[in-house]
């Protein structure tokens, strides 16, 4: 640390502050999740509000309508948002495939970590596009488990990660959907489609991500599917345990871990008038 | 394209120019390969000068000494650099493990796409560190074949890529060395070690990279090892052919391809005086 500070000429405290900003997953994913002033934004599949609580305060002059299929999740999300005194979010139970909104209701639609769970992500995106105004924007954020690599490499660790991928597949989902966002957005005829990968590259120079991402986010998530995967015979107990150990091993001072999220952006434009949004 | 131009307000020509800059591999890898004015830089393992011809003109006020083990490669490199009228490069035959230079000769050392071929990359880096001045910098750039992923996904394509990895391993090399640059630089006690991944993410919105990277660089390279891999029984001909077809398939309008290079930076500092370089 002291060397980095020396080179860039920052005080230790300032360097730590900058580090804090760049080193959180929220910052990597959401630093550019910004909407025009006065926008009405549909957040599709808000779950318990994990993204809502980041996005809504980041856009205080926009209003959010956050929907989810599960009333239980919505109850948790409401409590969370209230406890944080966030006032620009309303919640509503709704099915993403059959939205209870008339055409062209929203300025923007945002969908985070939801498409990976859907059997028909294209149909969901098409329905979301229906409720976006002409000239309005669509944004999607998804992970991609197949993008994971690390040092030291480990076949057992890859097998453990594959358990999550297999179980997701059984449920009709797709853990590797991040890389598909470009073709998905193009397939529903959005304009100005652009996809930017958000690689979370972690080595020991980034202690917050070592702790917060390698250990507490990714490996904990994989660890969570172990019981089910072993029960279903997707993997044996010893290999799974070894895989989890090897994932934690990448969090050691000489380890490296990399995972890539994808963020897609597109505009709903009238096919006959490309400049129609103004 | 016209939509992108519209949104960002650029003329078509200006947009294409910006695209040209951002879309070349050289730019992704070398945009920050810059040395202080007056630096004497050792380029270790210049080969036929493929990187030399980019780096030297980029740093007209630095002088380069580019070495390689192979006289044949050096002859090609000399011709290339002369033909381009680049005047700040000298060439010399030398062994990276036993450099014919006294300690602390160079302000900086640069090594690109060489460590992947070495049986003992750490020993080479240690020898390179020896000839760097106190306070001088070391820079390494390497690829990582294990970082490759694409859409549509294909087991055959991964098997074809694995042929290159296996053949490299037989030669004592490591095609997945990119991810190891951080521990390698730390292991030779460099200060201020920082590694930045350079993901080359390609979809149809980046036509130059589709052509220049997916087809002409990556897939052509994998295609090149086919004969040897089939001959050695690493893969059967049909699977290899399918794999190559599937890699070209990712260059279609709905395809996606991703590969990550790594760039490492470190400073040689006296252990007893961290600020000693001034």
Description:
- The structure is a homodimer of 278-residue chains.
- Chain A is of the alpha/beta class.
- Helices cover 41% and strands 22% of the residues of chain A.
- The first copy, chain A, contains eleven helices and eight strands.
- In chain A, strands 1, 2, 3, 4, 5, 6, 7 and 8 form an eight-stranded mixed sheet that branches.
- In chain A, helix 6 (121-130) links the parallel strand 4 and strand 5 (132-142).
- In chain A, helix 7 crosses helix 11 (237-249).
- The longest helix of chain A is centred in the last third of the chain and has 18 residues, at 207-224.
- The first copy, chain A, is globular, with a radius of gyration of 20 Å.
- The interface between A and B is large, with 41 and 41 residues.
* Rg of chain A, Å, rounded: 20 Å
What separation lies between the terminal Cα atoms of chain A?
49 Å
Uncertain ranges of chain A: 1-21, 273-278
Count of helices of chain A?
11
- Element string of chain A (H = helix, E = strand): HHHEHEHEEHEEHHEHHHE
Largest sheet of chain A: 8 strands, mixed
Shape of chain A: globular
Structural class of chain A: alpha/beta
Helix content of chain A: 40-55%
Nearest-integer average pLDDT of chain A: 91
Number of DSSP strand runs of chain A: 8
Largest interface: A-B, 41 and 41 residues
Strand content of chain A: 15-25%
Oligomer: homodimer
């Amino acid at each position: 640390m002291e060397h980095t500070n020396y080179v860039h000429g920052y005080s230790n405290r300032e360097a730590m502050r900058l580090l804090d900003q760049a080193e959180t997953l929220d910052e990597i994913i959401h630093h550019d999740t910004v909407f025009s002033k006065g926008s009405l934004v549909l957040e599709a599949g808000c779950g318990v509000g994990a993204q809502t609580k980041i996005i809504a305060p980041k856009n205080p002059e926009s209003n959010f309508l956050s929907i989810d299929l599960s009333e239980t999740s919505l109850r948790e999300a409401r409590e969370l948002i209230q406890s944080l005194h966030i006032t620009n979010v309303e919640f509503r139970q709704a099915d993403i495939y059959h939205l209870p909104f008339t055409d062209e209701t929203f300025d923007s639609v945002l969908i985070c970590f939801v498409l990976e769970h859907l059997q028909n992500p294209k149909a969901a995106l098409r329905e979301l596009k229906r409720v976006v105004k002409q000239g309005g924007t669509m944004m999607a954020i998804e992970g991609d488990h197949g993008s994971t690599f690390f040092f030291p490499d480990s076949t057992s660790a890859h097998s453990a990660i594959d358990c999550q991928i297999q179980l997701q597949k059984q449920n009709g989902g797709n853990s590797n959907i991040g890389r598909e966002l470009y073709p998905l957005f193009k397939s529903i005829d959005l304009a100005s489609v652009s996809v930017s990968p958000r690689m979370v590259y972690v080595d020991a120079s980034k202690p917050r991500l070592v702790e917060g991402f390698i250990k507490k986010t990714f490996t904990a998530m994989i660890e969570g599917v172990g019981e089910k995967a072993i029960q279903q015979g997707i993997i044996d107990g010893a290999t799974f345990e070894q895989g989890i150990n090897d994932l934690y091993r990448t969090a050691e001072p000489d380890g490296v871990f990399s995972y890539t999220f994808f963020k897609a952006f597109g505009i709903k434009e009238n096919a006959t008038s490309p400049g129609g949004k103004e």
